[in-house]
Task: structure prediction
Amino acid sequence: MAFCAAPVHAQALQDIQVSTSEIAQDLEYLSSDELAGRRTGEPGIEKAASYVEEKLKSFGVQPYFKTFRDNFEVNSTEAYNIVGWLEGSDEDLKDEYVIIGAHYDHIGTGKEVDGDVIANGANDNAAGTVAVMELARQLAEKGGNGRSIIFALFSAEEMGLKGSAHLAEKLKNQGIDLYAMINMEMIGVPMKAKDYEAYVTGYEKSNLAEKFNEYSGGEKVLGFLPQAKQLSLFQRSDNYPFYKQFKIPAQTISTFDFSNYDYYHHVDDESENLDPAHMAQLIEKLVPGLYKMTTTPEKEIKMTE
Result:
């Protein structure tokens, strides 16, 4: 009989509290002028990487490799993903993995506006990075995740998904049993006039949204955004290399709906234009579904096309 840690009580998952002030603090630092737009290969992204590493360590997340750094090169530039993990607690499930990821790089500089050239990348994608860090905190505190969870922050997304492509290939070559990959992208402001909290790219490719909402007590957390399919967003973020390598549900969660934020790749993509309270609330609503993904005996989330 396999040992299985005591499951977290359902009510405990509904009582999750995420600090808006801590979300705001992390967001402000990662999108500050000090980090100069977090361009891959430049000093600012090193500061961001160190900040993320220290946060993950403080939550009890362990390095997945020898260190948190997963090194690679892009156009002769040294780059690195940050990769940590929580080992699963169920002997029958712990060799199966769920990845929760986001890119932490940005473009560095942009078109000058009123003397400002730093493209701070608050929504794109300090917001997603903060979400992954906070999800790591919450899931580490809860414990009892049956499957193992990898937390991955990707570099060189803005150079063509290079960091996620590197990690996906590396993990594939290691032969890991990857169940699903959830990518967090641009969640800094709420959606407008929607009956769900966030949309998922590649909605029709799997039953992820349906099962996730079921795991969330029937609350409609994830939904379908027509523009996401029209603009092929499934292929345009860090979920896609994992889909290509593993042919598993690998999808992006976002709240950028093309009408609610004007500063994509703009120097005014700054933390003051985001909504940390919305982010905290969304993260709270994501935890139950993500936790349940790690504990179901069967792999219930499946590709449908």
